[in-house]
Amino acid sequence: MTEKNTAAVTGEKEVESKNFIEQEIDKDLAEGVYDHVQTRFPPEPNGYLHIGHAKSILLNYGLAKEYGGKFNLRFDDTNPTKEKTEFVESIIEDVKWLGADFEDRLFFASNYFEQMYECAVLLIKKGKAFVCDLSAEEIREYRGDYNRPGKDSPYRNRSVEENLKLFEEMKEGKYKDGEKVLRAKIDMSSPNINMRDPVIYRVAHMTHHNTGDKWCIYPMYDFAHPIEDAIEHITHSICTLEFEDHRPLYDWVVRECEFENPPRQIEFAKLYLTNVVTGKRYIKKLVEDKIVDGWDDPRLVSIAALRRRGYTPESIRRFVELVGVSKANSSVDYAMLEYCIREDLKLKKPRLMAVLDPVKLVIDNYPEGQIEELEIPNNLENPELGSRKVPFCREVYIEREDFMEEPPKKYFRMFPGNEVRLMGAYFVKCTGCEKDENGNVTVVHGTYDPETKSGSGFEGRKVKGTIHWVAVPTAKQVECRLYETIVDEEKGKLNEDGSLNLNPNSLTILKNCYVEPQLAEAKAYDSFQFMRNGYFCADCKDSRPGSPVFNRIVSLKSSFKLPK
């Protein structure tokens, strides 16, 4: 989604600054290079999408929408060794969830294999491609490096007829994997190594998730991708910076394959987020080693994981807008993503009471057996969310940290002799506590002042502390999960051997939490603010009817400040 920042105001007219991609598109339209805009998001279905892909999805979709164009979702499924239908389905779900509407334009590169094959035959006939018998290792050796030019393959000057015959035999399955490849014939002395006769087809006797066993030769990405774009009439092929050096090959392919009005590749900076794991091989290992419970484990930043944790499409769209579009790689603080979800939820969600580390408070002078219904606002910052009835009685649960027998200075919660307000209820003065044989507090005691009921207009003495609570008889016991980054922020992401430096505290499971009765009916993805504890979402995998499991989306406070 493209970001529009007001650069200046001249008189009554706003001058909007456009990012460099929009400026290039404007130029192409003005000069008549294209008469429309068509973009695409082209994932390879070899894993789940992550937050970086969200930037690409929203950028490509946003550009198409901005210019009244079209947006395609196309799977670059040219490598059957790593691709699965599971990944295809998850990607479709993610793109739809983010709100990027590809309408009926869902495509697969594998549907174009016949046209790609014909393009390869055309290159052979033009003397622009040849079948090579060198091994992968020999091809690397012949290619040279940045300090020395490559040298021609001994098979480079095969005749057109021989190349056509050999390529047909490759297609018919007469050769083993790696025995022969088709290479473009460009320039082995090019300073751009990508142009040194790159491999464009290889033999791979593997079943493809979409085409089955129809093909045993598969195009390489750098050959397939520009052809896919050209077939779909993509105008602007927006990709990340690592493809900048591949652009000359992209242009060579669409030119030599004789596509009319070919697409144009434009590169932008990837989204790098601090203290997260996005590499597919790392996530795959975390999944296989059962360190996480799947690609959607809430400690990850796959789009499915963020959705499961409780992030919203709106928060991710806002995050992508704040990050913006640039040509230079940089890292974004994870705290910015957390800021965006807080901002999205703070006025939308009810603020309910949940006690995560409970200790019982007995109000000794409150009538035994009495339960009264208190009217409590759902969100003081958004009166439109209304109010709810909350049961109150003689025994309530409070957070263990809200009582101290010998408190430090400026501790305004419960301690012997101190008075606090129970949120939405009454003033309660602490009178003492009970302990077990190990000295652990088991029960806190207090007395309440019936004249101090919230909403009654009481204007007497003031108290400095307000704490939340849940009535014991009606409280529902639930499991809450608290998350931290999966990598150790202080030690860095990687160990010396290249393995991930994992945070042993990335997941804390609290099974003895008590919540207001209505929270027991929470359904998958329902989210709430738990007063003073953060925003929580009912887990989509492990919640059961009447027994939800809550994931903490984000804590309530952060040191992050939005740049001015």
Describe the structure.
With 564 residues, the protein is of the alpha/beta class. The chain is built from 12 helices and 29 strands. The chain is elongated.
Q: What is the topology?
A:
Elements: E1 5-10, E2 13-17, H1 20-30, E3 38-41, H2 51-66, E4 70-75, H3 85-98, E5 106-108, H4 113-125, E6 129-132, H5 136-143, H6 160-172, E7 181-184, E8 199-203, E9 217-219, H7 221-231, E10 236-240, H8 247-256, E11 264-268, E12 271-273, H9 280-288, H10 303-309, H11 313-323, E13 330-332, H12 334-345, E14 351-352, E15 354-355, E16 358-363, E17 371-377, E18 387-393, E19 395-399, E20 419-422, E21 427-435, E22 441-449, E23 466-467, E24 470-471, E25 476-483, E26 507-515, E27 527-530, E28 534-538, E29 549-554
Parallel strand pairs: 3-4, 4-5, 10-11, 12-13, 14-27, 16-22, 20-23, 25-29
Antiparallel strand pairs: 1-2, 6-7, 7-8, 8-9, 15-26, 16-19, 17-18, 19-24, 20-21, 21-22, 25-26, 27-28, 28-29
Helix pairs in contact: 7-8, 11-12
Question: Quick recap of the structure?
Answer:
With 564 residues, this protein is an alpha/beta fold. The chain is built from 12 helices and 29 strands. The two termini are 21 Å apart.
For the record, give the distance between the C-alpha atoms at the N and C termini, rounded to a whole number.
Answer: 21 Å
Question: For the residues shown, what is the average pLDDT?
Answer: 93
User: Which stretches are poorly predicted, pLDDT < 50 over at least 5 residues?
Assistant: 1-15
**Largest sheet, strands/sense/barrel:** 7 strands, mixed
Strand proportion, as a percent range, falls in 25-35%
Structural category: alpha/beta
Coarse shape: elongated
Main sheet strand line-up: 14-27-28-29-25-26-15
Amount of helix: 10-25%
| Alpha-carbon Rg, integer | 31 Å
DSSP E strands, number: 29
DSSP helical segment count: 12
